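$ run holo --ligand "hypoxanthine" --emit tokens
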Amino acid sequence: MNNIDSYTHTRGESIYLDDIPLLQGTLFGAVFPSPFAHGVIKSLDICEAEQMPGVVKVLTYKDITGENQIGGIVPDEPLLAEDEVDFCGMPVAFVVAETDEEARAAVKKIKVEIEKLPVITDPREAAAKGELIVPPRTFKLGNIETVWQQCKYIFEGIAETNGQEHLYIETQGAYAVPVENNAIKVYSSTQGPTAVQRASCRVTGLPMHMVEVDVTRLGGGFGGKEDQANTWAALCALATHVLRRPVKYALSRMEDMAMTGKRHPYSSDFKIGLDKDLKMIAYDVTFYQNAGAAADLSPAVMERTLFHSTNTYFIPNVKATAYSCRTNLPPNTAFRGFGGPQGMFVIEAAIAKAAEELGIDKDVIQKRNLNKTGDEFPYGQKAESEAKACWEEAESRYGLDKIKDEVESYNALHKLNKKGVAVMPVCFGISFTNTAMNQARALVHVYFDGSVSVSTGAVEMGQGVNTKILQVAAEVFSINPSRVKVHTTNTSRIANTSPSAASATADLNCKATLKACLSILERLKKVAAEELAVDVASITLKDEWVYADGERTKLNWKTLVNTAHLKRVGISEHANYSTPVIYFDKTIEKGHPFAYHVFGTAITVVTVDCLRGIYEFEAVKIVHDFGRSMNTSIDIGQIEGGLVQGIGWMTMEELIYDKEGRLRSNALSTYKIPDIYSVPKQIDIHGLESQNDNLAIFKSKAVGEPPLMYGIGAYFALRNAIKAFNPGADIPFSAPMTAEKTLLALYSKTAKGLNVVNKKVEISVQSL
Ligand code: MTE
Ligand code: HPA
Ligand code: MOS
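-- output --
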């Protein structure tokens, strides 16, 4: 089944926030952002702005009728600055005017006097100064202290990944409308309608039943609208509450890039120990997460970094520690993978370091250490592993040895062009790591004309969740999909929603839909049995007809639901689903946090032009663990999109903040993302269809985030190509590997000495 949005998307008819027809009297907002990253506000002059044409009001923190607080996990984030600013772009005032242009013109007339304070942009500096968002956490397995003596090889190093701009096509925005009796309706481009509702209530002081949030769809979220849609929605809601007029604010691209947080940059220390058989037996890692100026989702992101610190490998002795460091950057936030990619990059760097120092191929170590079913993760859960199955399928299907041979002969023949190949296995846990968030609700109405409406807490952001929800209803009732409509996500229809995130949206909301539909189906079958005077167990519904004992009867779907209604049998249902089995005990950092894991393996081949430092990805060949995909075209789209987004993060997307905490890569002229010319020339995707049982909807495993991490292979393929040109190249483990960094590495001096702590390298490639 095609994505149900494809028709209106391609015709430009889909409704986004900016397509909502405006009510008469709608006002427009614009934020005055802090020009400095850290300082004390000495004075704020809004007089001239207030006199500007069309301006209705300039709101500051003094106008907040509730609490000046939008922090979700930690209450450390004011909606509008009071006497201090903590990052460049921090909202200080909100101008509301008759038109968009007038609001933005008035913003320019606001004057602020700020006494500057020292600016921290580096997470290690923040940690050294004790600037932590939450106390550090450590995950442990085995005994790291005693095992180092047993290691034949020990390697240490530093690995760094930069942040990433979400660059959803639709920028952030909201539209608040006053409704009678002081209530408000908020349209928001958010992954978290309830988060927007909560923030709007907090700042206005209204109870939650007075604020209704409605979301049609997003032009992309990628995590950037899990928490950070709250600010604009709360500002609009506040203005509407104060002025009793509709207020809209949609950010321009540059406002969005400058004011919102991004993927967290990380700087990490690793130490890895291997035995004589190249089994990784000890891993010690410390992560310094650059959280930005407020907590936002950083503690949860940090937690997922710890969960994925060993990626898909079994290492019996692990100590992983993470620090969430407060800096003067915009608060960093969720981004596809949610800290997992940052954790995985470090273990891959550690393995690369070991391989390079030992003079062997990285995939030799990777393959030997893949986890298998029953192996324990550092957080206590036992793997149900498809790691080897994916690896071996990729190896044989795509001919890994042959690819490596071809790369080698190409490199022997070519002096100024070099190819590199890398294998990237991925293991990603599915569920919110915060167990309580793994719940969802669905409201299903069957109308007496036979049509069906479904509402859930799921937000459609391009990932195709609405299509999957529709498939569930059509399948349970065995009716034509055209009879089903999935409605907007609305907090009055579905309450207390978890954000659409953690790749768990389809599982959670489809399962709630399944439950609701099954309850209605049970009642319908009873009605059919009565009408036909047969046993209810003999009734089935197939292709819009009622069957009794396998025989088609006179009842069809339409007559059945109409009969049920006339008999006063309820044909609506509200159902609740919460993931079974999962739990996590933070006091011991052990549990079973994930419903299941998603596995996969990608082989990446790159060609580097060694004169210019530019490169092209020839191919990425993937074996992906779908479970049993319920919609292959959507799932393949997710893999392609995730992969390319991951490659962008690893290669060309270079976020630059200067020492003053100002974003320099603040437009698409200075921040490069992959375009159609930079995607791999060939992307092969093969689904590993495992028969194993799992908790996914119809056994169709979650697919939203895991493929992003295939992109990590791009960095290591590039690294290998550079080493083919300059074997001694001193290449820091620092992503993104831009063309500039590639050029520098190609002509870098040989790394000084080997950093082998335990100098007993006597391994030969042949003996492996
Ligand atoms: N795909 C599209 N087209 N647009 C998006 O914003 N977000 C990603 C992923 N795929 C995203 C996307 C992220 S960060 C997540 S968590 C999942 O989709 C969320 O949807 P799911 O839970 O239904 O997989
Ligand atoms: N993943 C994504 N988003 C989240 C999570 C998570 O585990 N926890 C809270 N928000
Ligand atoms: Mo995705 S980062 O969990 O929104």
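-- notes --
Residues 754-768 have pLDDT under 50 and may be disordered.
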